[in-house]
Amino acid sequence: MSQRDDLIQIFIAETNELIEELDQSFVRMESEPDDQELVAAIFRATHTLKGNSGLVGMTNFERIAHKTEEVLTEIRDGKRKIEPDVVNFLLDSLDQLKVLFATIQESGHDQVDLPEIPVPGEVAVKDSAGKKAAGKTSKRKAARRTKAKGGPARKTSVRKKKQPAAAGDGASVETAWEVFPEDTADAPAEAVAEDESWGLFDESLSDDSSSEAVQEIEAETKCAEPSAIQSATTSPPVERADTTIRVDVTLLDGLMNMVGELVLARNQILQFTKEVENSHFQAASQRLDLCTSELQERIMQTRLQPISNVFNRFPRVVHDITRVNNKDVKLTLEGAETELDKTIIEGIRDPLTHLVRNAIDHGIEDEDTRQAAGKSTVGALTLRAFHEGGQVNIEVIDDGSGIDPGKVKAKAVEKGVMTQQQVGALSDREAIALIFKPGFSTAEKVTKLSGRGVGMDVVKTNIEKVGGNIEIASELGQGTTIKIKIPLTLAIIPALVISSGGQKFFIPQVNLLELVRLEGEAVKQIEEVGDAEIYRLRGKLLPILRLSKVLNLSSEAAAKDDVNIVVLAAGETKFGLIVDKIHDTEEIVVKPLSKYLTEVQAFAGATVMGDGKAALILDVVGLAGLVEIPLNEPSDMTGKTGTDEKRAVNQTYLLFSVSDREQLALPLALVSRLERTDYSALQKAGKQDVIQYHGKILPLLRVEQFIDIAPPAAKETAAVIVFSVEKNEVGFLVSHIIGIEDCDAKLDTSSSQQPGILGSLIVDGKITLVVDAFALIQSQFPEWFRRRSDFVKTKQSESVSRILVVDDSPFIRAIERSYLESAGFTVVEANDGEEALARMTTESVDMIITDLEMPKMDGLELTRTIRANESLKELPIVAVTSPGSSADDLKRGLEAGVDAFLNKVDREELISTLEQVIDSSN
Amino acid sequence: MANTIESSEAIHLVDAETQYATFKLDQDYFGVEVLRVQEILRRQEMTHVPLAPPYVSGLINLRGQIVTAIDLGALLTGRAGPARPDSMNVVVNNGDDVVSLLVDEIGDVVAVQKSLLEPAPATLTAIPRSYLKGVCQLAKAVLMVLDLGEILEIESNK
Question: Which stretch of DSSP H or E encloses residue A783?
């Protein structure tokens, strides 16, 4: 039994290599159908597979291998042409073999039900082939018998001297077999399948093998060729057999761990050495230092694997994709021998595959498009790997259509990742980098292969997981280059030691950009923007994070002390980390944290310091997540909107939707900022939906619960429109931010009498409901508005309760009405001065808020008329100026008798101005 | 480990004995299966982990291995207790991981027959009953037998 287990172990190791070899060879075969040597090599590999599997009793495996071999026989004999369906048959069979192989590895048997793959053109070919084969059997057997003894000798000679040896050299034959025990896997295969093996070998020797009169010596000479070819195409087996052994990976992992321990012990001893003045001891510890470093490096090398382990699968991947979507792509692999740590190789396998798929799916155009663009019809895809500066660089280069920054920007707005204004400020390069944001896919059509919801953000995350970073450059129409940089190894890394709050932490050196120290007065260069701290680093804004604050530690440094900023990069995000002290750099062994600490994003792992204490390694990417600069430009949105337009005509709206059915809008001026969120991040506080934002709780309102619109379809991500009311913040949870639109404020207030709706608009031919945001907020959080209402009621309600709003824009009137009503006033509206005067004859009002520029009678005229009227002249008048108003306008306004000016329609300002006016008029 | 014990119990006589390592935490007397205990250490130098859940006291370096020290008191009661500067470490294995339970005082190893294990008294509210395999009357005190598998499955839900 155990002997069989051993056999299976050998079988698994051997089969793994053979399958990989076949994977590449099959694809090559399609492009180089005339390569006889390739066919011969493939045939041999398949044959060995069949023989080996038979030997360990894997009957299913053997059967499929046999079927594949039959087809290959026909190809080799020229009875079958290498056509796409034949190659596909071979690849499909190989896939089945892989499935079986996986089962064997797992459970030691191959009893899996697999569908039969039809042999292309089976019936016709098989008949004739069968007969001919039968006819030949006797010949083969005859030939075999004559060579039974020569066989091994031939093989040995090939491996040893790559020359034919004399057939009679019997003694050397025997020793040769013993010298090459690695060949045993071949040997039993041939032994079992000897019947065909040698005969078939004969056939592979020469095309005219049907002639019986093949001389023995001649046969051997020719046989040497395919074997020699095999050694040339794969790595040379001669040297390998002598110098390499297979080692279990767990053994290497164990070694690596031990070396890690040794490095730590060495660090401890070195620290100790500093305190001891004994030259012998110092010399010894120096030697220990050297040897440890050397050993560490060597052990690390044992874990290195050529990147070809990943690259080699791509010819097949490319073949499969191009087969589906009718593109012709030539794949070039460069630097496949570049070596990387095994764990990293495994880590980049999926991201790279995704990138290759993307490049073909979205990058390289189909033949017609390429031809029209004047490119070669065959797309070129290059994978290149090389060492640079202690890191491995991998590039995925295609000559496809490139990425259109314009499209990406439009998409960013559509997906609510950014606002129109923010997008406008981006360079093309920055715009292209947006594709790494979550929930982004530029493919117009979701295709079978790459549009599976796995976006570039996942690729980025995976690359970052192995300590790498990814960049993209693209020229429209010329192609795209994606550059990945990854460290050689993860286990032992150089790190910067810093301390904060009296505790030491390690920062991986890969993330470190520079150190900045601010002394004395320079400390003030750290500025505050809103609630965020920033530092201007050579003209660029660097968000600042204080480690002690992030980690809730008490900082030792007083506010006036000098400041140490560690400038860090996490992918695209750069930020400065203020720490109390910066110490040294050290080589550290990364040890994982237990599952109880995985939630703590700030740490990537732990290590043991020179003094034997455990210390934490900061996760720079995790920290960056904490400073992820919110997607907004706080407050200046309000000031900037529609500056050049006359506001009465043009309003800027934020368009959004809750479901696909309705388009909704809000005056952008009301919005404090936009956020993206995930439905999974929503939490409940009582009955209130809330979301955590920078450590604060942001209450969320669902628009669909207030007004009569369709509820949102289930989605993963959502957008939050944030408003501030006084010092409170509240968000509207919506599905989609559509964009920002300047449009004529022809707000139809008659058609929609729903509470919470100001009116409707037509934007881009779509009916759009304008939501009365403050009314919704007030209905939910009346207490936020109470102060104003109370104020109005107690002190002023006698003097002012009815306000006449005069403006030729129904939109502005609607907004002002909403603000005023939410503050407890009653509102009367008029379209112009004439109408206002008419109104005042029938209704009494306590105050007027008027626009200055209006048709028929403008605001100044209105004011003068009122001031001239004996019964109305005490009436407080507030004028709303347009952004273009000059000092002269204001002067004229004052002369006419205006009590106060409002320069924009802002709720806070409106109410406080009213308060002032009311106060002073009392 | 727990599985092996249980299965061996099944094979042996119904009233098999299990050995428990005992310790004191505040006034309570607890036991854990001795086979899960890797070692017992005196106070170790501990590294504070900022932002960690309240039941994580810190990290200790156990011969190069980073071990999470768990404030058992906080974990059992759900609230952080007073700092225990002189805590002993009961290092237990938990699958692939090793954790250290901080306790006040180490007691003897006691053997308890399975039949003597009773369900926890219904009035016990300070500790979730699922955390206990049962209680056992000893001459001097009542031993609460902890279900380590259950306790250490805290995952990230706290």
Answer: helix A782-791
